[in-house]
């Protein structure tokens, strides 16, 4: 993890955003960024006293852009903009989302295309480094003209106004937090208020963090599917490399490779090949056999989303913008459609990934389909219910994920007296994707909990494990937190324990400790 990240005129990487948002990595502005900022500010300064109207410098905003602002009121214009636009409502947005938003805005300031003074950018960096986080409600952004309300709350903090949380999470006024950190509030000058709020920074931050989370969960999904195949006495023949070369989607290939790696050396799989288990089926159900195809399609969707995020990270999102040749031009680059679409696309993929996982869990519980295991994996079916209701929980989550897969970006609602008559709703697409990612991790946790119990019932426990080396390592990690099969116990804490093992990376680390090659 980077201890410090230098922000130049366009070199921010996805891992940088995660490091700052989640792990409080420090930031510093590079010399090239400060020089570019200073240069573009000179362009704005030359327009300050101009009688010709310039949007954001000497006019009102949005539908009020036709209003010419007197010279003596142009600094007040910027302060008024921030105060009026800091209008969010609802539940407090998580700290990591706010920090990602702030870092992305700082990155755009560092391009030198916004016209702010260097003091604005350096103060923004100081606030981030001090761990001061504006309190922002979840409602307020339509994903067009930037994430206006959320970014305005961040700008309000620079002015020493509004509620914030300090690095310890204590709620206080921004003036108090800035004073404690030795940071002087900024008095905004012409164009600066607008430059602080016109960006796709919040939705981009949520996309970057969701992408990082989904990468890890895709590997977990491959592990989980492989464990279910082993526990259900399935076959690994369908994961052969030459079969997947016939349909050479990269994501499908990677998932099939992972599943071969996880199942390599499994005595249960070898027994099945040798005919030790007398079953009439000649091929496994889709949820087992087609796992690489479904998981691989999610990987492809993620790759596309990351390509969009990579472009956005190098972009200068503002309106108006100071061009490289010194013009100040209005534009529509703040529209969140590119990000909103892929956020929604990922929500669809996440819902389907959870759906196929839940189907595998359900197969373990049905005595007609689990190949010799107790009904519901209960110790004494009838007296005990086993994992019956764990499947209900997974099913309930999957149903919710299907609802969350309904795209936000197909909606639009006019604002600003029809000046802003088509918006992206990308911010809301990001919020629902975060909820979807959480749900996916819980569904996978339930599958892992169930498959581990089934394997213990199949081979008598870890002392006589017939699992592959990789799956044995995963089962051992699970058993450090959850006991093996027995009479019914309070199940909610066990589901939560598996969820924590999933999101902490513990299970992936355990798998990779025994894998011939690290899982992709």
From TrEMBL:
Keywords: Histidine metabolism, Lyase. Coiled coil: none annotated. Its main location: cytoplasm. It comes from the Bacteria. GO terms for cellular component: cytoplasm. GO terms for biological process: L-histidine catabolic process to glutamate and formamide; L-histidine catabolic process to glutamate and formate. It is an enzyme of class 4 (lyase). Pathway: Amino-acid degradation; L-histidine degradation into L-glutamate; N-formimidoyl-L-glutamate from L-histidine: step 1/3. It is found in: Cytoplasm. The keyword Lyase applies. The keyword Lyase applies. One of its GO terms (molecular function) is histidine ammonia-lyase activity. Signal peptide: none annotated. PROSITE patterns: PAL_HISTIDASE. CDD domains: PAL-HAL. Its EC number is 4.3.1.3. Belongs to the PAL/histidase family. This is Histidine ammonia-lyase. It comes from Paeniglutamicibacter gangotriensis Lz1y. The lineage of its organism: Bacteria, Bacillati, Actinomycetota, Actinomycetes, Micrococcales. The gene is hutH.
């Amino acid at each position: 993890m980077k201890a410090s990240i230098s922000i130049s005129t366009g070199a921010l990487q996805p891992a940088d955003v995660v490091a700052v948002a989640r792990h409080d990595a420090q930031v510093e502005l590079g010399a090239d960024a400060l020089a570019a900022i200073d240069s573009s500010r000179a362009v704005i300064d030359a327009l300050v006293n101009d009688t010709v109207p310039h949007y954001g410098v000497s006019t009102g905003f949005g539908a009020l852009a036709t209003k010419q602002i007197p010279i003596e009121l142009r600094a007040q214009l910027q302060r008024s903009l921030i105060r009026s636009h800091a209008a969010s409502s609802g539940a407090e947005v998580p700290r990591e989302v706010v920090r990602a938003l702030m870092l992305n805005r700082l990155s755009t300031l560092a391009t030198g295309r916004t016209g702010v003074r260097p003091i604005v950018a350096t103060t923004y960096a100081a606030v981030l480094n001090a761990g001061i986080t504006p309190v922002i409600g979840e409602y307020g952004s339509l994903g067009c003209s930037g994430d206006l309300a959320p970014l305005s709350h961040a700008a309000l903090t620079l002015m020493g106004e509004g509620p914030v949380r300090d690095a310890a999470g204590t709620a206080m006024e921004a003036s108090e937090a800035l004073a404690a950190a030795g940071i002087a509030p900024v008095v905004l000058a012409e164009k600066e208020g607008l430059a602080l709020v016109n960006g796709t920074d919040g939705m981009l931050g949520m996309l970057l963090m969701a992408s990082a989370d989904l990468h890890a969960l895709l590997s977990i999904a491959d592990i989980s599917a492989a464990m279910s195949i082993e526990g259900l006495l399935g076959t690994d023949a369908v994961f052969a490399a030459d079969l997947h070369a016939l349909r050479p989607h990269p994501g499908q290939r990677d998932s099939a490779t992972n599943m071969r790696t996880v199942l390599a050396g499994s005595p249960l799989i070898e027994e099945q090949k040798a005919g030790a288990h007398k079953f009439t089926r000649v091929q496994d159900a889709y949820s087992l056999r087609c796992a690489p195809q479904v998981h691989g399609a999610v990987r492809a969707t993620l790759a596309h989303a990351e390509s969009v995020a990579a472009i956005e990270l190098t972009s200068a999102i503002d309106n108006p913008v100071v061009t490289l040749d010194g013009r100040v031009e209005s534009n529509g680059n703040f529209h969140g459609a590119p990000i909103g679409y892929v956020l929604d696309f990922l929500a669809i993929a996440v819902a389907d990934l959870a759906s196929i996982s839940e189907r595998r869990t359900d197969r373990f519980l049905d005595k007609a389909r689990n190949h010799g295991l107790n009904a519901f994996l209960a110790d004494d079916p009838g007296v005990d219910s086993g994992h019956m209701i764990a499947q209900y929980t997974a099913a309930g989550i999957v149903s919710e994920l299907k609802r969350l897969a309904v795209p936000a970006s197909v909606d639009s609602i006019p604002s600003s007296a029809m000046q802003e008559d088509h918006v992206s709703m990308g911010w809301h697409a990001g919020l629902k994707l975060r909820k979807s990612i959480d749900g996916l991790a819980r569904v996978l946790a339930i599958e892992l909990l169930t498959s581990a119990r089934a394997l213990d019932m199949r081979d008598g426990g870890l002392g006589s494990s017939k699992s592959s080396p990789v799956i044995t390592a995963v089962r051992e990690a699970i058993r450090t937190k959850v006991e093996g099969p027995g009479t019914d116990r309070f199940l909610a804490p066990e589901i939560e324990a598996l969820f924590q093992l999933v999101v902490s990376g513990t299970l992936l680390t355990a798998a990779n400790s025994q894998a011939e090659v690290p899982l992709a």
